Amino acid sequence: MTIREVAFPHELYVLLKLTDKKTLPETLPGQFVEVKVEGSPKTFLRRPISINYVDREKNELWLLIKKVGEGTHQLATLKAGDTLNLVFPLGNGFSPVQKKGEKVLLVGGGVGVAPLLDYGKYLKESGADPVFLLGARSKSDLLEQELFKAIAPVYVTTEDGSEGEKGFVTQHSILTKEKFDRISVCGPKPMMVSVARYAKATNTPCEVSLENMMACGLGACLCCVEKTVKGNVCVCKEGPVFDINDLTWEV
Amino acid sequence: MKNPVMTASGTFGYGVEFADFVNLEDIGGIIVKGTTLNSREGNDYPRMVETASGMLNCVGLQNKGVDYFCRHIYPEIKDIRTNMIVNVSGSSPEDYAECAARVNELENVPAIELNISCPNVKQGGMAFGVTPEGASSVVKAVRKAYDKTLIVKLSPNVTSITDIALAVQDAGADAVSLINTLMGMVIDIEKRKPVLSIATGGMSGPAVKPVAVRCVWQVAKAVTIPVIGLGGIMDAHDAIEFFLAGASAIEIGTANFIDPAVTVKVANGINEWLDQHGCNSVADIIGQLNA
Fold first, then answer.
1. What is the per-residue pLDDT for B121?
2. ipTM
3. Which residues of B touch A (CB under 8 A)?
């Protein structure tokens, strides 16, 4: 695939917009890609990156990448016109719409907001009623706010109170004011665990998107396993999205 | 075999996981995930850590057991027209033999690869593969229970891999494959803890290739049975090194994680190299090092 545009929404993040001569394959919101990182000798394995957004009209696939290690820093040096080798789409994706008008709370934190943009758009277009609840350390750490707002209502918490309500996502007043039909979460594990706790307490169906360390991305190497009620399963193949009732987390 | 390229156990699932990327029937042989008599959950996460030009894993032979394999997985793969080979592991000569006996009944599995070299399980696995006596005891037991092609996969974590190879040859192995992973360890210096859940893991990838080529060279000179070479092969050039060192066939492992179509690319690359060098087949270059 060819990089059409590179943007830096934040000093720690890069947004790559990719396109291809061929029409992009069908992808489901919540699926991911495995990116080959060229020019970084220490980066041997591909890097799993969630699909941030798919623009069918422009035949564009967006990857919102947090610069964590050498591999992702290398990806941030790419320029428009460069090519990138991807294996995708991988994984199961978030749940499809279950009924018209269902109210779905999408909770994201950090780079975990990335797949919720594509999922929120899908839910809205499919007749559901998504609501975003996004958490960050500070106002400047909130990503793609305008894009989220263009799809559905956005509620925000920041740890320093510089935007939205002060605190963590699970402390937001929307959770006591409104009732949701189901919840989808992507973010740091402590955040997902606390949202799972809220979901269980309120008897709300909840799914979470995990990011265990992966090698193959195809369910072959059995490295990225998560303990579930069905035993160890591959996050790359049976996930990354899991119903919290299938996990063995202590919430 | 249509070509000398096979997949290394544990890196290619049961083949079907890669069907979207490569025509499975263009691969010389597919060695499926390690199978044991009873199901195994494997080790806890984290099971993998990346290293310079490679990775460590400590999966620990996670599989649903040989009965599940025979009943549910074999029907899905038995009509793939290439050599579907089952990698068999165990914790005593008796359960290696029993597992092999079950696989012996599967019509479309022409061979097994006996894993006496897994570094990631507490009992069995590598314990048998590190002494000539241990290796011999497992191979003898399996040989009685299994009458098709018996490949034995050797560990490099030994003082003399040649002694082990000779012992399994004497015990009735039809071929040896080497190397399994090298035992390694990575430490998280901030936590002052090993990264992997069981502290150590098996190292694979291009970083181990020179060790593997050396082992193949030593073993091929010592034994009369065919040697299958593996360890860090990323492309056809790497594969040719193994043939020259004495391997009759090769397996590709970790490279499948980087490029799911690498097997067929390597098979084609080998043919191109042979053509360019005026060779008719791989047989022309096996062990053909200039003195």
1. 76
2. 0.94
3. 10-13, 17-18, 21, 33, 41-42, 44-55, 57, 59, 62, 205, 254, 256-260
